[in-house]
Each structure stands twice: as C-alpha cells, then as structure tokens.
Design goal:
Layout: E1 3-8, E2 11-19, H1 24-40, E3 48-52, E4 65-71, E5 83-87, E6 90-99, H2 101-118, E7 121-123, E8 128-132, E9 144-154
Antiparallel strand pairs: 1-6, 2-4, 2-5, 3-4, 3-8, 6-9, 7-9, 8-9
Length: 157
C-alpha cells in the first residue's frame, strides 16, 4: 500500500449532505441527488469530494453524516440545497485508489486499521475525505478513482 504524506491547502466546497448508512447508499446518493445537481450547476469539470464525518463502526448507520462536494472559487455563490464547507489545510496521508465501491471499503479499513497505527501518526481532529480529481484509467463499468485523504498529526509520546 503506497501512501504519501502531503501538505494539502484549504479547499472551499459547495456540499450537499446525506445522513444514513455509508457504502452502496453513498453511490445512490451521488447518482440520484448529487450528480444531477452538479450538472445543473455546470460544475462537472471541477474537483469533487466525498467527506465522511463518522466512524461507521461506532456511529449507528442511520446517523452517519456524509457530504458530497465540489471545489468552487471564492466568488462562486453557493445556494440551497448546497452549503459552504471548507476542508482545512494540513498534513494528510493520501492513498491513490482505483476500484469499485465495495473495494473502497477494504481500502479504508486497511488504511485505518493497518497503515495508520504503524505510521508514526495519529488521526487529526478533521474529517477524512475522498478527492475525485483524476479519471479512472479503466473503462470497466463500476470502477472509479479517487485519493483517500486522512488528516494526520504527530503521535503523542
């Protein structure tokens, strides 16, 4: 698993929230709600983000919060149903993922349960997110590519 430690800048987003289980429900949310809104706003070419705020192993599925968002300029007027969200600048573990929606669950699990404890870092008190900025290199239906980004801080001694 190739993970890079990267300093990322702050990013201004227009986001739409979904509350409920992660997994396949997120794919449906993107397809039925987020992507039609994105096309309507003429923002399909902008970098897109998926932000998970809750640990699905601790938080009840019906209470998990997730934002789908798109990077927007400082002068872009964000209107309902979207709200403004800023992803904080900081040091992040970045893993370039390519696969299916079920594969990404395993990638998150490996990063959080295997890589992070051995990395010399701890999870910072910021949301983890997926950054969709590069096209998938395969034309197989159901595959997508994103960077899994985990906020870091140095391990306390």
């Amino acid at each position: 698993m190739q993970v890079q430690i990267v300093d990322l800048p702050a990013v201004r987003l227009a986001t739409i929230r979904k509350v409920g289980p992660y997994g396949e429900a997120i794919s449906l949310f993107w397809k039925e709600t987020y992507l039609p809104w994105l096309a309507e706003q003429h923002l399909l070419a902008n970098s897109q983000y998926g932000i998970g705020y809750d640990n699905p192993y601790i938080t009840p599925a019906n209470e998990c919060r997730y934002d789908a968002g798109v990077e927007v300029s400082d002068d872009y007027l964000i209107q309902s149903p979207a709200v403004e969200t800023t992803l904080a600048a900081g040091q992040y573990a970045v893993y370039a993922f390519e696969g299916t929606s079920s594969d990404i669950v395993q990638a998150w699990k490996m990063l959080m349960q295997d890589w992070l404890p051995k990395s010399g870092y701890e999870l910072a008190n910021l949301p983890c997110f997926e950054r969709h900025i590069r096209p998938v290199s395969s034309e197989i239906v159901g595959l997508f590519a994103c960077d899994i980004c985990i906020p870091l801080k140095s391990k306390s001694v």
